[in-house]
Write a structure and sequence with these properties.
mainly alpha
């Protein structure tokens, strides 16, 4: 807009021609199309206020339809992601069972191929969720941040290197896998909890900012005073989650601090990108001499519309998260259960073969003790390798589900630690409990058979 004004005032272009010239320099297609429409409207002599009102309604309609379309796509792909995981877990399960039943050649090569297929399918599903989910930024990236954002950032700077170093040490000294998963979950938990608290507060403030801006604009327009004076007349109790922020803003303005600095701290301390955008628009429009009442209503309506759209996305993402957590436990449990049954069964059959070594040594397959000739009993090295292989598969599945949940729900990056903490804890429980359960079940069956 500044460039258009400069072309018109300094170089003698009319505004229609200037808008068209600047449109050719615009890289964003939406901005370029808008400037072309503005050029046509100015050339035809259309009233500016009427044109911009129509553009506002058009942009709101386009944004709303695209967002709702993305939410519907996300809903379909969350179901598709679950189906993909179930299918690929079936492939890994068949591979594990086949290694016990048949001689499949090089176990390492087959396991690598199955692992590559598993990883590709998992992260392909994650990528599709990332692309289909509505793109939005909830937390701002300003220098001034909310208390929760600052706390999460400081904890994260300590937790990330600590987690990496601790995990490597535990792997080197040979600690049980479930302990490593549990330690990672415990270390990620503080960052995740603070991040989720911050996300909840931002969500509530995004709802309340519409009331604040509308009330402030209406009060300023009715009283005919500045925003600082209007803020004094405003009932802070009606602002709900923004009450403390508004009181702090009022105190700073009363003490004679530069209003721009006061508002910058108000925006920063909320932690919300939505508040950052719409409060900046509100302040800029008022400073340019716009009608405060109209500006407040327009900005409040737009911000509330976006907050409501996010609620519709939350319905889909919450359902997906509630599905992923038990599904993750079930899939990890199936893999570990199959391995432990295979491990226990192989050891039991090996002991039986050792007891009947004389009979087996001189007998054909048809006269071997029942069951011994039908299984490919791997050596201890193969069984240990498959145990580590299953743990790696569970690790890959955990990481994939963490990112899938994050992309589906959105929010700040700190929420990633919350989902990671939950899913790593679930994996730790599976790695600890399923072997005990499987050994107990198989021991009971062997005892009954004896």
């Amino acid at each position: 807009m500044k460039k258009i004004h400069q072309l018109a005032s300094n170089y003698g272009y009319n505004y229609a021609r200037a808008s068209k010239l600047i449109a050719e320099e615009a890289h964003h297609p939406a901005l370029r199309d808008f400037l072309i429409r503005l050029s046509n409207a100015l050339g035809l002599g259309e009233e500016e206020e009427k044109f911009f009102r129509g553009e506002t309604e058009r942009m709101v309609e386009v944004y709303t339809n695209k967002y709702l379309s993305d939410v519907e796509t996300l809903k379909k792909w969350t179901d598709g992601y679950a189906a993909l995981l179930v299918s690929v877990i079936l492939v890994i399960s068949v591979f594990l069972i086949s290694t016990m039943l048949f001689n499949m050649g090089d176990t390492f090569t087959m396991s690598v191929l199955a692992g590559v297929l598993f990883s590709f399918v998992c992260f392909f599903g994650v990528y599709v969720l990332y692309r289909s989910a509505p793109y939005e930024v909830t937390g701002h990236s300003l220098e001034i941040k909310s208390k929760e954002q600052e706390l999460a950032r400081k904890i994260c700077m300590i937790i990330l290197p600590t987690t990496l170093i601790t995990s490597l040490i535990l792997v080197v000294i040979g600690v049980a896998h479930w302990v490593i998963f549990l330690v990672v979950a415990a270390l990620f938990a503080p960052v995740g909890v603070v991040g989720m608290i911050n996300e909840k507060k931002i969500e509530q403030k995004d709802y309340d900012i519409s009331t604040f801006l509308k009330s402030l604009g209406t009060t300023a327009g009715t009283v005919g005073a500045t925003l600082a004076v209007a803020l004094e007349h405003l009932d802070k109790k009606s602002l709900a989650s923004l009450e403390n922020n508004a009181l702090t803003l009022q105190k700073r303005l009363i003490n004679g601090i530069n209003p721009k600095v006061c508002w910058r701290y108000f925006i920063g301390e909320t932690g919300s990108e939505l508040i950052n955008k719409f409060t900046t628009v509100f302040l800029d429009a008022v400073s340019l001499g716009g009608n405060q009442t109209k500006i407040g209503k327009i900005v409040a309506k737009s911000s509330l519309g976006i907050a409501i759209l996010r609620t519709k996305r939350k319905l889909v993402s919450t359902g997906f998260m509630n599905l992923v957590i038990p599904l993750h436990g079930a899939m990890c449990g199936v893999l570990m259960f199959i391995y432990r049954i295979m491990f226990t069964f192989s050891n039991s059959v090996a002991e039986m073969m050792a007891e009947h070594s004389t009979e087996v040594g001189g007998a054909s397959t048809g006269s071997m003790p029942m069951g011994m000739g039908f299984f490919n009993i791997g050596n201890v090295g193969d069984l240990d390798y498959l145990g580590n292989y299953v743990t790696i598969i569970i690790l890959v599945l955990t990481v994939a589900n963490v990112f899938a949940t994050k992309f589906a729900t959105g929010g700040s990056n700190y929420t990633l630690f919350f989902y990671a903490s939950i899913l790593f804890a679930v994996s730790a429980v599976v790695l600890f409990a399923i072997p005990i359960m499987a050994d107990s079940i198989f021991g009971m069956q062997m005892g009954a058979g004896g």
